[in-house]
Recover the amino acids of this structure.
């Protein structure tokens, strides 16, 4: 059975698609069978970072029951498989994202990891991705809005039965006064799987005429090494789960966000 992991953030633009693609490639590189699913049903762009401009069959068709899941799987770089989402707004309106769980259960036995690139926010499509997953990995920027949104996403994921395993810190500037990974770990009460700097080469992934994730384009880069570290941690290396919630703005926020029993 595959580990089905939703890559979510709450906040838009935190790096979910970037992390999904690079992590998928690094997991594949260490011998895992990996399927990436673009679960951003409204604003699909996983296929863009994988340089796939057109795809005859998409997740839309699968969710509409018009295509079998296996027929919407495409080959990506370094042995990964992926299911793109559709670009048609008409189909998007007709799609029932709640069918994602049953789609995944049909594919589960063929993979070690199924990564779901979730949309931003906590609308229905995001809830479907979180419900369809067993685990959630958050992508967080070192800013208070991003942390607050990650906290909400964590609570929603837990409510939906997805184990929130930790977070990836993205867009680190290494500036004085910046919120650190350890501080975010304390606030979210989650381990940090890795930290990526704000990096021109990562940003370029979506800008090239033939885009590809940095882990394919620049194998020796610092960012690629970090994605490889995150992949190996995901496959078993233990991460310290120690987390102490500090008193202050975020613990008050956490109190406000807790669901009433
Ligand atoms: N560490 C980084 N350094 C520089 N640019 C980055 C970094 N991570 C992501 N980006 C860039 O930021 C933009 C947003 O990244 P991405 O699309 O992965 O985020 P997202 O969370 O999937 O966004 P959305 O919420 O719109 O789905 C992209 O242009 C991407 O190339
Ligand atoms: Mg995205």
């Amino acid at each position: 059975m595959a580990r089905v992991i939703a890559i979510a953030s709450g906040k838009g633009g935190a790096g979910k698609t970037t992390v999904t693609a690079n992590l998928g490639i690094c997991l594949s590189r260490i011998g895992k069978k990996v399927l990436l699913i673009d679960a951003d049903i409204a604003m699909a762009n996983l296929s863009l970072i994988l340089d796939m401009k057109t795809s005859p069959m998409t997740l839309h068709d699968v969710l509409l029951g018009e295509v079998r899941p296996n027929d919407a799987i495409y080959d990506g770089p370094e042995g990964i498989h992926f299911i793109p989402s559709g670009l048609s707004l008409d189909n998007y309106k007709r799609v029932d994202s709640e069918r994602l769980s049953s789609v995944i259960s049909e594919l589960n036995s063929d993979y070690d990891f199924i990564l779901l690139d979730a949309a931003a926010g906590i609308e229905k499509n995001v809830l479907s991705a979180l419900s369809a997953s067993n685990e959630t990995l958050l992508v967080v920027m070192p800013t208070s809005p991003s942390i607050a949104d990650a906290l909400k996403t964590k609570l929603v994921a837990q409510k939906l039965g997805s184990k929130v395993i930790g977070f990836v810190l993205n867009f680190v500037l290494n500036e004085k006064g910046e919120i650190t990974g350890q501080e975010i770990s304390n606030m979210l009460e989650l381990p940090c799987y890795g930290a990526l700097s704000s990096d021109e080469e990562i940003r370029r992934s979506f800008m090239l005429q033939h885009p590809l994730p940095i882990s394919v384009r620049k194998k020796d880069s610092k960012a690629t090494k970090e994605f490889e570290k995150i992949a190996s941690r995901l496959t078993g290396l233990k991460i310290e789960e120690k987390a102490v919630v500090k008193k202050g703005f975020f613990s008050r926020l956490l109190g406000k966000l807790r669901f009433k029993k």
Observations:
- Strands lie at 3-8, 34-38, 74-75, 81-83, 113-117, 135-140, 163-172, 192-197.
